[in-house]
């Protein structure tokens, strides 16, 4: 068969060709293996193992609560400020771990990428799955704390929690695909991600309330702030676990509009990240 007829054969596919994130669904078994590997090696050789999934957010919460709530007394008059604070910390931790894992996913699997071909998107998607697995203990701890404080189950709260988690995952995965591809050729990308993560806690209402931004920032800056996907996700976590405990607290006007904008930004970020990733993945093996 000639080369021309071979290329016109509908069953012929160029070796190494990828359909992007759609290929992840076609290689679910490989994704499962990578996910199991990531979970198994996370705390390999650690004495405490999975206990660290509880210790780290607990220590982070304790530090912020002592400084913000006790020393500075900036609890904003909330009776359940610990729940408000912990809900925001859990949301931001999911974003931080997902973005950090996906940014390093390709480089961390350099030995495998240089030996065989498989859809490169499997690595950041598996890294996202690992972040979600380690997010579950934190979410469970938040759920228990909220219950002990008098939180009652409601479907609206569950929906808010799920949507908030989805926004964080989509946004972090999109950024991770973008910076993960750049990180293969330029390791500066990892340092840039560290800067994003450093500001992420302060650029969303985790340690303070949204009213402070509304009262002190220009209106245009407030709109930008509220349109931030992480801000919307953190507020959805607050709606899920903290607002039922303090229903009299005022919520942002047009909050649903901001959530929809944040969700749209997350989708656009995912699309841009996928485009950049696909354009650069052909040189991953050589660069690594």
Name its key features.
cell membrane, single chain, transmembrane, 72% helix, globular, 288 residues, 14 helices, mainly alpha
Describe this structure in a few short sentences.
InterPro entries: ABC2_TM (IPR013525), ABC2_TM_bact-type (IPR047817). The chain has 288 residues and is an all-alpha fold.
Secondary-structure map:
Layout: H1 3-8, H2 22-26, H3 28-42, H4 52-71, H5 81-108, H6 110-113, H7 122-148, H8 155-185, H9 188-200, H10 210-216, H11 219-227, H12 229-241, H13 255-280, H14 284-287
Helix pairs in contact: 3-7, 4-5, 5-7, 5-8, 5-9, 5-12, 8-9, 8-12, 8-13, 12-13
Describe what this molecule looks like in 3D:
Pfam families: ABC2_membrane. Keywords: Cell inner membrane, Cell membrane, Membrane, Transmembrane, Transmembrane helix, Transport. It is found in: Cell inner membrane; Cell membrane. Residues 48-280 form the ABC transmembrane type-2 domain. InterPro entries: ABC2_TM, ABC2_TM_bact-type. With 288 residues, the chain is mainly alpha-helical. The chain has one domain (51-287). It is 72% helix and 0% strand. The protein contains 14 helices and no strands. It has helices at 3-8, 22-26, 28-42, 52-71, 81-108, 110-113, 122-148, 155-185, 188-200, 210-216, 219-227, 229-241, 255-280, 284-287. Helix 5 (81-108) packs antiparallel against helix 7 (122-148), helix 5 (81-108) runs antiparallel to helix 9 and helix 5 (81-108) packs across helix 12 (229-241). The longest helix has 31 residues, at 155-185. The radius of gyration is 21 Å and the shape is globular. It starts with a helix and ends with a helix. The model has no long low-confidence stretch (mean pLDDT 84).
